[in-house]
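During the no-cost extension, the postdoctoral fellow (Dr. R.K.) reprocessed legacy sequence entries with the updated structure-token encoder. One reprocessed record is reproduced below for audit purposes.
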Amino acid sequence: MEQLKKLFEKYKTDKKLMNLLIMFVFGVILLIAGGTLMDNPSPKTTKTDQANTQKVQKDGDLNIRLESILSQIKGAGQVSVMVHLIGGKEIVTASDLKKGETVTEEKDSGGGLRKVTQTDTEQKVVMTGSQAAPVVVKELEPMVQGVIVLSDGASDPAVKEALHEAAKTVLGIPAYKVQVFEKKRTAAQQ
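Re-encoded structure tokens follow.
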């Protein structure tokens, strides 16, 4: 504090420098106070964690449903499935797009002609009246990267082909994204 008083005394005669110093000190105080007051108590990782948890739940639900249907194929036996999804759910909202274009032609005193084109674009998300929620046009599900199917009956080529066809058909993916394998037999099963 003593040093601050000495600094003020030294530059007391120069008004501009004194005003600059006062603004600097005030700015530092605002930065310190603003950083303390503006801290967000909920970190962004919480949203990411929630998205990851929802994705894992979605993957699990899909795996269980697919296992349930594939295990009903004759000769398949017990079936385990792993579906790998890319990305998350994407929601496409309706938007109101306004475009405007203004063309101005100017002639200067030297006979030159100048043409100026100004384009204005404004896009707003359309909201529902009562709840003030965005209007959803469509929801895009995550893409399937690949599927692994393990089955007790996959040693039979006909069962393996049936599992392969069923998995690719229900998920709407190409054949190269589906792999079917026979489950490893435990000592009790042999």
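DSSP finds four helices and seven strands in the chain. The radius of gyration is 33 Å. The remaining legacy entries will be reprocessed before the final report is submitted.
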